[in-house]
Inverse folding.
């Protein structure tokens, strides 16, 4: 009985430890920010596998959705509803592009790096619509400077 109690205590400690390490990162969906109109803030995140990104509705009429061309092979993707404060957990290393569906061409995009990964050449070659392409190139330039 004593051993059972100890085992339970250890299990509880382990459960606490793993949840303490997995973080939730908040990203604001905004009509205007430091980077101009229609932005996610921040527009670039480096997180660890198991971490969650929560998209906060700072202003109305935005969503968060994955970009198929800017996702690792085999990633099923997701699409939040308009005004939904969706939470997305990333378990696998890689780079993940995010777009606001109605404001994609207006440049409302961001990039998430999960774990240890290098930016695939196919991402650089991909032409996102409108201002989104310019914003992604700016993000890639920042990554290159690190
Ligand atoms: Cu938007």
């Amino acid at each position: 009985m004593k051993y059972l109690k100890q085992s339970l205590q250890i299990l509880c400690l382990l459960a606490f430890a793993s949840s303490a390490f997995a973080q939730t990162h908040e990203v604001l969906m905004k009509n205007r920010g430091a980077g101009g109109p229609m932005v996610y803030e921040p527009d670039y995140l480096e997180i660890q596998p198991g971490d969650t990104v929560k998209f906060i509705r700072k202003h109305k009429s935005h969503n968060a959705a994955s970009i198929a061309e800017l996702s690792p092979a085999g990633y099923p993707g997701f699409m939040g509803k308009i005004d939904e404060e969706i939470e997305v957990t990333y378990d696998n290393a890689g780079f993940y592009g995010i777009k606001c569906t109605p404001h994609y061409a207006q440049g409302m995009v961001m990039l998430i790096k999960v774990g240890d990964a290098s930016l695939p050449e196919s991402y650089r070659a991909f032409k996102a619509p409108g201002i989104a392409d310019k914003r992604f190139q700016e993000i890639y330039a920042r990554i290159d400077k690190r």
Remarks:
- The pocket of copper (II) ion is lined by residues 38, 62, 100, 102-103, 108 (CB under 6 Å).
